[in-house]
Amino acid sequence: MIVALPSTEKGMNGSIADIKDAKYYTFVEVNLQSKEVLNVHIEKLPFESHEPVDIPLFIRQYYGELLIVKDLDKIAQDFFKYMGIKVLTGVDGKIEEIINAFINGEIYKIIERNKN
Q: What top-level branch of life does the organism fall under (predicted)?
């Protein structure tokens, strides 16, 4: 599975960002069965401003299957889902921490922490 995470900084040590603030997307290929990261690929967004379709198409271009993001309104979530991209919201923190929690089935802990 390839997970897409928006950030303002480049790299796994960067913090996840809202879509509107993102300058980079980190694409992380994970194997959920073996709980390992297979590949990390970072791309700078090729545009400053965008239409609603641009980000989902950008993510699909890199075979993203899941978008993990801080917040995304329901209409945008539905649009991503229509484009075949699952969405997980309510997540904040460093990309590496988020990916480790995700592959270990503990992403809910980050989401719960962020609610407080």
A: Archaea
